[in-house]
Specification:
224 residues, mainly alpha
Length: 224
């Protein structure tokens, strides 16, 4: 049996996987550039950084490890050894993030709220597009998306709707944590974070519909 699913680990799968991860980090870069808040994916590690002073990279590794543990609890016998590698994928994801954020230096800082909002919309699109490319490759998901898959399988729910629910949950946890421990409303969360939590799953659904209309093929987001 193929370690990375039932299909062969083809060049196309690897390319889509890497391209998808990079698109997501581009989305993170645009969200940071907008100054309207981090993406839901990075809100918890950033909250840990603000509250505990943990270096953001270490906080991300800790966050990924906790999510992998939750996956193990949800999937039990269906949990695969390859999902332990999600922590190491997080390291690769970190390098991509640094590169993508660096690219944002070529874009002028937004001069007003409208421009910030446009950058947020671009961020949402790239995160959704990244998910569309890399999740179905069934190689090694980031733990945040591995958890979305696990929740979809465990509770037999639609991936896009589950993504919306999970992102909103991360947002609420970040908001409550910053208020309780720092005494501030917001902290790592801004209006851009809220918009991302609500609309990434929605945009992903429509990207899937457009792809299905153009190609006649349906993409499976639940296979692990």
């Amino acid at each position: 049996m193929d370690f990375f699913g039932n299909d062969k680990l083809t060049l196309k799968r690897v390319f889509n996987y890497i391209l998808g991860l990079w698109f997501i980090t581009l989305g993170i870069g645009f969200s940071i550039k907008s100054n309207l808040g981090s993406t839901p994916v990075s809100s918890i590690p950033y909250t840990l950084n603000l509250i505990c002073g943990i270096e953001i990279g270490q906080a991300t590794i800790l966050f990924h490890a906790i999510l992998v543990l939750i996956e193990l609890i949800l999937l039990r016998k269906d949990f695969k050894i390859k999902h332990f590698l999600q922590v190491f994928v997080g390291v690769l994801f970190g390098y991509f993030t640094s590169f993508s954020v660096g690219l944002m230096n070529f874009i002028p800082d937004p001069a007003n709220f409208v421009l910030s909002l446009i950058l947020t919309v671009i961020s949402i699109f790239f995160v959704a597009l990244g998910l569309f490319f890399y999740v179905p490759t069934n190689i090694i998901p980031l733990s945040v998306d591995g958890l979305t898959q696990a929740l979809s399988i465990a509770f037999n729910t639609n991936f896009s709707k589950t993504k919306i629910f999970q992102d909103c949950s991360l947002l609420v946890i970040s908001l409550v944590s910053c208020f309780v421990f720092l005494g501030v409303i917001g902290g790592s969360v801004g209006i851009g974070t809220i918009l991302s939590a609500i609309f990434v799953g929605v945009v992903l659904k429509y990207i899937h519909k457009i792809n299905s209309y153009l190609t006649g093929e349906s993409v499976d987001f639940k296979q692990m």
